[in-house]
């Protein structure tokens, strides 16, 4: 096993309402790389992401078999082991959803909220971390004078960057992004792409995407999910990435 | 043909709505007409503030107004934390099998006739209160309000669950994805988002408590007095109406029950207007 491996997935089977979505998926993700998962709608790309942070467990009538191991502090941990803390997992594996989902509170409180959940009471530390996360998410300059405004007043692109900042404030080692630019215009999407590239040196990124150009611009590795199985795709320009269900931006 | 059919259905629905609305207005009109001699004679406000003493020619309903308000408010006060806790357990905090079981029990409770609660109150709660406090017969404001709390709780619980379930899933996903526990999710996201629904449920519960007749009639003791403590017996407006109607006709006592009806109607109207106003602001502010 390579030292650079961050996530190991073994024999992953996932079914929803008795319908098998992922079939015996075995794969690895290397540390500080950006992997794009592509494929047509409804094949289970987003579902696969939720098997890494165990978010699928909130979905009724879903079932999973197999193992997911993640390397924390140099050791692999089975994240489905009873002794492994779920809050610890989700604080180390951030997630950004397809549609921006800021909470109904101010911009500042949205980013500070994950720290509140960890029990952090030092207001100065919280303020420092909020500023740092907003800067990493390329949002600080746009919101620094309106931190108390309702987060829902931000534009779609700003809301998505706010959600990225909310995930980044906990300094996750892995960031899962489920079509993070699909609800944004091309300019806002480009900003998010640039942001992802700046995060890559310190974070393992797994991005579900539908866009050929985007995938060829940002991904270190491309996996196609087809009929419940993973297929490695060669990197290259958009015309070389012949994957069904993908669009050109 | 289809067009005529649609028009016909539309008219029928409109007619049904008009009938429902007019029945409510007619009832109020009926109450006002029957209470007219009292209202005309300028006795209405007298009756609201006077004590009930028919032998002295005093037919005031003040003790019953206080009895109704104290039993109803206490009932909701006891029932609210119980309902909020139960609803949070069913919606968010409990394990799935417990949630399903509890919800079924609550739904079943809404269908139990009030008289059954009355029986439970008389044969279990009243002796228990009597033994516990060693004071009086046990038929008192405390017993009635405790039993009323049990009666109104299912209504409140189901309403609270409905409000909690309306919190957008995207908010819950956001909290889950950053490692929030169930209780954190409930306290910091669900409750702040659903507070208007909770308040509406509370007001509905109060409306139900104000209008209940049987439990108070069976358990509160029915003494016409302004209760000085929760251990005192009391009579509600609804009990007053039921008791006087059962024994009298065309006497001044009988005429005074229309004042009770008008007061109850006004209480209920205030509660309903409160619910409607809240529901409207809730709809406007829903994300």
Structure description:
Chain A has one domain (5-233): Rossmann fold. Chain A contains eight helices and ten strands. Chain A has helices at residues 45-52, 86-92, 107-117, 123-136, 140-143, 156-168, 186-199, 212-218, and strands at 5-16, 19-30, 34-38, 62-72, 75-78, 93-96, 174-178, 204-208, 221-226, 229-233. In chain A, helix 7 links the parallel strand 7 (174-178) and strand 8 (204-208). Chain A is globular, with a radius of gyration of 18 Å. With 287 residues, chain B is mainly alpha-helical. Chain B has two domains: 2-34; 44-285, Orthogonal Bundle (MetI-like fold), CATH 1.10.3720.10. Chain B has helices at residues 2-34, 36-40, 44-49, 62-93, 96-111, 114-133, 141-165, 169-177, 182-211, 214-219, 237-247, 252-285, and strands at residues 52-53, 58-59. Chain B has a two-stranded antiparallel sheet with strand order 1-2. In chain B, strand 1 (52-53) and strand 2 (58-59) form a beta hairpin. In chain B, helix 4 (62-93) runs parallel beside helix 7, helix 4 (62-93) packs antiparallel against helix 9 (182-211) and helix 6 (114-133) crosses helix 7 (141-165). The radius of gyration of chain B is 23 Å and the shape is globular.
Describe the secondary-structure layout.
The complex is a heterodimer of chains A (249) and B (287).
Chain A: E1 5-16, E2 19-30, E3 34-38, H1 45-52, E4 62-72, E5 75-78, H2 86-92, E6 93-96, H3 107-117, H4 123-136, H5 140-143, H6 156-168, E7 174-178, H7 186-199, E8 204-208, H8 212-218, E9 221-226, E10 229-233
Parallel strand pairs in A: 3-8, 3-9, 6-7, 7-8
Antiparallel strand pairs in A: 1-2, 1-4, 4-5, 9-10
Helix pairs in contact in A: 3-4, 3-6, 4-6, 6-7
Chain B: H1 2-34, H2 36-40, H3 44-49, E1 52-53, E2 58-59, H4 62-93, H5 96-111, H6 114-133, H7 141-165, H8 169-177, H9 182-211, H10 214-219, H11 237-247, H12 252-285
Antiparallel strand pairs in B: 1-2
């Amino acid at each position: 096993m390579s030292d650079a491996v961050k996530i190991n997935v073994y024999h992953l089977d996932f079914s929803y309402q008795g319908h098998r979505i992922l079939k015996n998926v075995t794969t690895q993700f290397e540390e500080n790389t950006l992997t794009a998962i592509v494929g047509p709608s409804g094949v289970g790309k987003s579902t696969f992401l939720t098997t890494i942070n165990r978010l699928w467990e909130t979905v009724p009538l879903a079932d999973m078999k197999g193992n997911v191991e993640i390397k924390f502090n140099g050791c692999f941990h089975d994240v489905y082991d009873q002794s492994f803390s779920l809050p610890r997992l989700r604080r180390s594996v951030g997630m950004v959803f397809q549609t921006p989902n800021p909470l109904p509170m101010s911009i500042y409180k949205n980013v500070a909220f994950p720290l509140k959940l960890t029990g952090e009471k030092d207001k100065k530390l919280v303020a420092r971390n909020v500023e740092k996360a907003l800067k990493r998410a390329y949002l600080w300059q746009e919101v620094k004078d309106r931190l108390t405004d309702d987060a829902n007043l931000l534009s779609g692109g700003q809301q998505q960057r706010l959600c990225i900042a909310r995930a980044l404030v906990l300094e996750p080692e892995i960031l899962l992004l489920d079509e993070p630019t699909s609800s944004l215009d091309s300019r806002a999407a480009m900003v998010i792409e640039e942001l992802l590239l700046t995060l890559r040196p310190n974070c393992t990124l797994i991005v579900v995407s539908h866009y050929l150009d985007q995938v060829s611009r940002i991904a270190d590795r491309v996996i196609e999910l087809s009929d419940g199985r993973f297929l490695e795709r060669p990197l290259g320009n958009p015309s070389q990435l012949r994957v069904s269900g993908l669009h050109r931006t | 043909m289809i067009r005529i059919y649609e028009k016909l259905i539309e008219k029928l629905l409109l007619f049904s709505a008009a009938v429902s609305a007019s029945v409510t207005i007619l009832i109020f009109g009926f109450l006002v007409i029957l209470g007219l001699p009292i209202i005309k004679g300028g006795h209405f406000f007298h009756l609201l503030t006077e004590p009930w003493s028919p032998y002295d020619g005093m037919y005031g309903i003040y003790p019953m107004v206080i009895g109704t308000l104290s039993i109803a408010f206490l009932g909701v006060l006891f029932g609210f934390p119980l309902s909020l806790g139960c609803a949070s357990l069913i919606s968010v905090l409990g394990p799935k099998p417990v949630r399903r079981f509890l919800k079924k029990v609550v739904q079943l409770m809404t269908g139990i006739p009030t008289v059954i609660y009355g029986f439970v109150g008389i044969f279990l709660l009243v002796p228990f209160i009597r033994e516990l406090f060693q004071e009086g017969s046990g038929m008192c404001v405390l017993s009635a309000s405790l039993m009323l709390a049990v009666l109104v709780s299912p209504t409140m619980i189901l309403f609270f669950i409905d409000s909690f379930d309306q919190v957008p899933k995207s908010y819950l996903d956001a909290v889950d994805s950053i490692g929030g526990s169930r209780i954190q999710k409930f306290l910091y996201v669900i409750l702040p988002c659903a507070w208007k629904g909770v308040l509406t449920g509370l007001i509905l519960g109060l409306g139900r408590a104000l209008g209940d007749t049987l439990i108070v009639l069976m358990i509160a003791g029915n003494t016409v007095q302004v209760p000085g403590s929760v251990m005192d017996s009391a009579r509600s407006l609804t009990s007053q109406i039921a008791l006087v109607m059962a024994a009298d006709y065309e006497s001044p006592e009988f005429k005074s029950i229309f004042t009770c009806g008008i007061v109850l109607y006004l209480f209920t109207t205030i509660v309903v207007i409160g619910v409607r106003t809240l529901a409207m602001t809730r709809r406007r502010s829903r994300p």
